[in-house]
Amino acid sequence: MQPGVAVNTLVEFCARRDVAELTPDALGPVDVVILFGGSILAGGDVFARAIADRVAGHFVIVGGQGHSTDALRDTCRNVLGWDDVDGRSEAALFDRYLRERHGVEADRLETASTNCGTNVRNALELLAAERVPHRRIVIIQDASMQLRMHACFRLLAPDLEVVNFAAHQARVDEHLRIVNPPLGMWSPERYLTLLMGEVPRLTDDEHGYGPAGRGFIAHVDVPAPVREAHAALLAAGVGESRAADPRWA
Questions:
Q1: For residue 176, what are the contacts with CB-CB under 8 A and spacing of at least 6?
Q2: Which of the four CATH numbers 3.30.420.10, 3.40.50.620, 3.40.50.80, 3.55.40.20 does domain 16-164 have?
Q3: 162-196 burial, b for 16+ CB within 10 Å, e for fewer?
Q4: Which residues form the DUF218 domain (predicted)?
Q5: Which end of the chain has fewer CB atoms within 10 angstroms, the N or the C?
Q6: How do residues 159-174 score in pLDDT, each as one tens digit?
């Protein structure tokens, strides 16, 4: 399998979108849309359009500080020219981005979570504490982490109906260059590392995050083509799986 094909196989698996577009007609009734702060800036654009189109009754941004926060802060400095981002949570940065770039704002922010599990747990606790209806929600996360975020919701709130809409589905060409990179896109090296790190995490064995392993997420079926793509990239020496950062455990 060619490396570019292998990377795009991982993108197709991880960057799940259950609808073609975030519009009222495509979605039907939705209680809440949640943007998770592990996304690139383009996720803020997707979220802003959802707010402008009023696709749901409530809009929430979730994200404290985790493995992608420093990258988001760097993007805010280098792309947006902000020089006061140190110590700012992901949710606070995206909230400012929405206000300044799009003239819209979220209803609520969650600023204490540090990883996928606390993202979901804190979001659910916030919605429950403020008595926000959340029978059917849309979640927006980075392409690399969308599927895992959904698996965490399936574990912690199995009766909740979740509609996936990854912030982007950026592909690469045969030279592993990102095609039409969205705003704030990761470097190709980081993107590949994030994608490759998801396969062992999603694999439900003693090393993964599923019930047979660490119990962080619900069971996920990893299809053979995805396993083969991951193995092909490892064999070719292209990229490596992202190691978990103990600071955000």
A1: 3, 4, 7, 188, 192, 238
A2: 3.40.50.620
A3: bbbbbbbebbbeeebebeebbbbbbebeebbbbbb
A4: 64-163
A5: C
A6: 999 999 999 999 999 9
